[in-house]
Amino acid sequence: MGWEIANAIYRTDRSYAWNYGHAPTLPRTRRVPMGPGGLLFGQRLNSPLGIAAGPLLNSRWIEGYARLGFDVLTYATVRSRYHPAHVLPNIRHVDNREQSAVAARRHTNSNGSTTIAVSTGLPSMEPDVWRKDVRRAKERIGRGQMLIVSVVGTADPGADAEIFISDYARCAAWAAEAGADAVKVHLAVPTPLGEPGLFVYENIPLAAQILYRVRTTVAVPVLAKLGLFRSPRMLHETATKLAPWTSGFVLVHGIPRRVVDEEGHAAFEGAGREYADVVGGATFPTCSRQIAEMLAWRRAGAWPHAILGVGGLSTVARAQYVLGEGADAALVATAALFDPLFAVRFRQSLASAA
Ligand SMILES: Cc1cc2nc3c(=O)[nH]c(=O)nc-3n(C[C@H](O)[C@H](O)[C@H](O)COP(=O)(O)O)c2cc1C
Question: 96, 197, 210, 215: which is deepest, by most CB within 10 A?
């Protein structure tokens, strides 16, 4: 296509800090095809395609990808204090096998096959830095584009629930004040409250309190990021209990799996890193099923909330499928990392179909 994408792609062999400082340099001249339009929280969009929390580390990444035709842009999860990333590797290509995900030496990137395990530790810059930078991101996106900021609570070991809950609300308030069009509350994280193996969204009273506090603190729409559910019943029960305090749901975050190398050793070194989020192409069957379940509950009248589909949308056809089923937006993360022209192809396919 004649595009030059010098640094467009996230360097998995480099640290989070390196990638933070080396945003993509993308061409300014070529125009992306016109988007099909979209609507989210009453805001007009050029298209309902966007990027989930993760790949867009700061305003420069957001600006670069916004120019390439992604219209729902999520600022990677931020915290109320500086938090370093885990040591490298943070991302490994994996084969998703029965017992565990196995880090692969070789990998293919074609046709949506890219599947990775992510173990970043959810790094964040200091609030002073990201609050200014969110403002910049908002200034740099165009008309018909939306900025979502993802927030997570941070609690020291032994801290009580109240500290954790109010920490989420503090980040959300800062994000909204800095210009976020919506705040995404990241609930697909392990609870720090002494409940081994449990994610925040699986502790429904805790998740509801977090969302209630955020909802009553900010005026912008609030989205809840949810992970994998054990059953359709759990999905329904959780969404129904959280619905009063949220404007929409983003799912599926990823598939938590034990990640090992070919010899069976932990693929990510260090305490607490045995399990990681497996994301990308191979997760599509599982994730799309849960998105479909969520959409079915909405169609049945359970609640009218926005549903942003994510998880394994590694091809344009998959993104279109989820939108065709009724999702308000389709978000990609792995595809954005390895295939930055995804949105251009998404728009071209619609233009040629019209
Ligand atoms: C490198 C990377 C970093 C991520 N960081 C975050 C994050 O900071 N917050 C978050 O909620 N999700 C994070 N995610 C998860 C994505 O938002 C998304 O839920 C997941 O990757 C599934 O989408 P995919 O299959 O298109 O990759 C990250 C994903 C990747 C690949």
Answer: 210
